[in-house]
């Protein structure tokens, strides 16, 4: 009626296997529920004794850094928009000046054509022929 020693060890390894499976499922559940970023502070809390002082300081500094970066981005964007608006007005003024010059030159060309026609008619009427 002796039982081999393997029979006594089998229930223990079976229990250890169950514990290993349960631990693996718990770890998997932690990974699914808590993303990697939120898992990291939990690990830090465990290593620092759960005080959370390091997290609060880094969280505040991250928020401050984000706020400063956001304000600087807004200021740079405002400066760029202002510069673009200035360039638009400057370009509009230049185009208006060029348009007025072209209109005055067109009038001058029309007047020169009229004078040329008058001169040709006068020459034809006076009988000067080449």
TrEMBL record:
Organism ancestry = Eukaryota, Metazoa, Chordata, Craniata, Vertebrata
Where would you find the membrane-spanning parts of this chain? 65-89
Instruction: Write down the PANTHER family for this protein, in alphabetical order.
Output: LEUCINE-RICH SINGLE-PASS MEMBRANE PROTEIN 1 (PTHR36475)
Q: Pfam families from the xrefs? A: DUF4577 (PF15145)
Give the record's keywords alphabetically: Membrane, Transmembrane, Transmembrane helix
Q: Does the keyword Transmembrane helix apply?
A: yes
Which stretches of sequence are listed as region Disordered?
36-59
Q: Which gene carries the instructions for this protein? A: Lsmem1
Asked if the keyword Membrane belongs to this entry, the reply reads: yes
Organism source for this protein? Melanocharis versteri (Fan-tailed berrypecker)
Protein name as catalogued: LSME1 protein
């Amino acid at each position: 009626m002796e039982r081999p020693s393997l029979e006594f060890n089998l229930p223990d390894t079976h229990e250890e296997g169950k514990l290993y499976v349960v631990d693996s499922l718990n770890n998997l559940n932690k990974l699914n529920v808590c993303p990697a970023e939120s898992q990291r502070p939990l690990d830090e809390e465990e290593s620092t004794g759960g005080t959370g002082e390091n997290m609060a300081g880094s969280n505040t500094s991250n928020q401050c850094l984000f706020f400063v970066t956001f304000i600087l981005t807004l200021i740079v964007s405002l400066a760029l928009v202002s510069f673009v608006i200035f360039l638009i007005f400057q370009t509009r003024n230049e185009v208006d000046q060029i348009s007025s010059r072209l209109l005055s030159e067109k009038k001058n060309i029309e007047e020169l054509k009229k004078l040329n026609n008058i001169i040709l008619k006068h020459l034809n009427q006076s009988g000067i022929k080449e």
